[in-house]
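Need tokens for this chain, all 341 residues.
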Amino acid sequence: MRQGIASGALLATICLWGASALAQESPADVARRGLIVQAEAAAAAGDHAQAVQLAERAARLRVTPTIQYFLAREHLALGHPVEALGYSGACARAAEADVSLRNRDGVLQACRAIATESEARVGRVTVRVASPPPQGLVVRVQQVELPATLHDVPYPVLPGVVLVEASAPGHLPFRREVQVAASQTEPVEVRLEAEPAAVEPAPVVAPPVVLPPTVPASPPVDAAPRGASVGPWIVAGSGVVALALGGVFFGLASSERSERIAACDVNGLNCSPEALTHDRRYEGYLTATNVALAVGAAAVLGGATWFIVDRLTHRGEGRATLRWGVSPLAGGLTLGLGGRF
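Here are the structure tokens for all 341 residues:
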């Protein structure tokens, strides 16, 4: 039965397009008619999505009850009962209002038939909002904003789980999911709770700081009189070590000299090859002896001088005497240092 109504309505549509073609058409009307022809061809080929796209473009140029019927039929074929219900309802209202519409009864019957079939495939939710609503309230059904004029009005949706959300400044967000069956209406009460007032943290009071009792500063203590510095002893000791090294080098030089004499004849002319080596060693040890004696004597004299000056600057802290001497020996020399400090 629905196929017969649809075929009759389609025949009426074609008749209307033919009748409009008899009058003089504007370029926009010619383009619109071409879109309608392409939409009908797409629908006949089973490409309902392309048919909807072409018909919507034609409707933007000029909408008629027959175009609305065509869109309702194609959306229903795509499984869009909510869209089919909207176009079929608009088609029926427009056909009822236009008494001059050709084949008006056939178009009206076809639109009402699709509306009845679509009604059986959709469910509805009724969003109820307390009066007066919060300032800035926004309600969304399936993530689509619901105008305030549709509050408390059954709103068509696809059967299944339907998400209802609401928000308003200064309120906690509202979210609820409801199960909606075909041909059934589910009410949803939107209640927004005010956000809790922000609690300012109590100021942190630092505990009082207890300072320790003030202890009077002790009077400065005079440093004990210092004795003689150790510097002179270090310098003089270094000189003694250098003099001792000089004695060692002198002994080595004397030994090399004796070896040199033994390597030659009585006249000192015919010498073995080792005599030249002994000569070089003798000269080296003799040079080292002179340097060590000079450095040692300078260090000992400098240390003694430093010691005497230091003691004179600390007169009354004790008397000191210093004695030193150098004594030659058969194999070298000896250095002595003594005194009272």
